[in-house]
Amino acid sequence: MKNRILLLFFFLFCAWCGLIIKGLYLQVIPNKRLAEKQKKQFEKIVTLKPRRGVITDRTGRELAVSISSFSLFADPKLIVNSRDTARIISAYLKIDRNLLYKKLLNKKRRFVWVKRQLTKEQKEHIKKMKINGLGFIEEPQRVYPGGNVLSQVLGFVGRDGQGLEGLEHFYDKDLSGKTKQLQLRKDARGRPLLINGQVFSEFPDGHNIELTIDANTQFYLERELQHTIEKHDADTAVGLVVDTQNGEIIAMANSPVYNSNKPSMYSSVIRKNRAMLNAFEPGSTLKTFVVAAALKEGLIKPNSKFFCENGEYKIGDRIITEADSHHKFGWLTVSEILAQSSNIGSAKLALKLGDKKFRNFLENLGFGARFDVDFGSEATGILQKLPWNQHLLSNVAFGHGISVTPLQITMAYTAIANGGWLMKPKLIRNVYGEMEKDPIQNKLKAEKLRRVLSEEEAATMRLMLMAATSKHSTGYSARVKGFPVAGKTGTAQKVDFVKGGYQKGAYVASFAGFVPANNPKYVIYIAVDNPRKEYYGSQVAAPVFSKVAGYLVRKDGMQPILISNKDLIDEKQKDTHTKKSFNVSRWEGDVIPDLEGLTLREVLKKLNGRDLKLIIKGSGKVTSTWPNAGEVLPKNKRIRLFLENETK
Prior knowledge:
By secondary structure, this protein is of the alpha+beta class.
């Protein structure tokens, strides 16, 4: 009996020791499998994103921000009456009742979204219902204060805060910041301990981004483009404003615009950033570069003359004509070829230059390649490989047989405006971290890609482009009162990608130029797609340039160019029928005044005391000058005045 009792105590002791050892094993020694099981039973992990970084313009104006919104979730296991809850909540939030009911019936799931991004009023109303099993999580909601402003560039985010298009997509990693996982603790019965109205927040913000864009200029440009579309019954329009010295994009506009707060209401065609993604034949705006290439090679001077065949020029089995069939030019100087936008003159320049030199020059200007702007997507356009036959060579000279993006043509004109440097276009100035003191990425430094023209060559091109905006030139409607401008019109027939060839009656009207021409600050490019009324660049795009350029000089507080009158005139006149020459005593300034509309006597009075040589052609009142008003006085101090009698 005693042995049995001892044996029983021995077994009890062993069992007790076993329990102690098992308890120590479970409590002290780590066990990955058990830990995972415990975590699954007593915790619920929800991944949440922090507040998205702010996007601002160059002045600090907010273009994309995140505000607090509240998202409603449910624990189906805690919902007492799934049918009634689904009926009440769906009616108030206007969501699908059956879908919500199915979610709430699944009692195995401990977390389901009911509706994201509620208003504060909706949250408070549901909270007052005191329905067990419902809770709220504070989440950031993306808002675009400007609505339509810069929409194609900014892009938008999805419901989960992920950037889907534009800068929101390209800089998604910087803007998003680091995600945070929220642990919902459960009690022994599996019920969450943090629920029923508890709000979770406090996450580190994403990085903030400062753009080169000026929101006011952007708004003004978008408005003018929209007015132009309506006036000329056009499909779309694009506009760019670039700082000549550093390549910063001050405005990049697409019209029609869309509301970034409601992107799903618009097609992908409307949301497309055509300033970087559309490539098309540029038309006569490319004539500037055949002249620049020939000038660089030393083949021409501004006063070099070419015979323009009286309107018809046969190359092989094809005949080149002027854009306007009424124009039947004879001899034109290179400057006049630009001013009158002669197709035949441009073709002859290209043939003189040759395909290799011309193509190399265009390639150096950035055509046929990407600039790798911080946007992500960018079209390259088409710059065909060598060799070019004579027909293609002559076509490219006046902007056919080549496709370019609005950004490419803008940056090419920037190289002429700034003295010969091709700049890398910039859309981002800074990327700031959480502290917002020192930028994580400082992109303020201007980036010169390469020199494409000497300073002297660029200055000569500026003078010729100024003449292209004088009276009787195609760019006359681009003028800005009180300020000299320079630029070139373009009218390109649209390619028919279905049938081949060109679409009858479909054009892209454009203008590229800079202001003020004597000391360029801004390059402006305007392109209007398929205007159905007037369609020439001079009629459609140049007036928009004039308005935008006028806005910019006023915004910057630039002073109009004024020439003061001084002293007396020392006049020496030589009559050669309609050609006369005057010597005036001395010159104190370096900019030619606006003489248009003045009589010869009034001209001499206005130029009182200037050491100039005036060459007069015609009689009556001044209709144009060479060089143009506002341009720098040539070294030979010679100015040509063209006069005409007024007709009634």
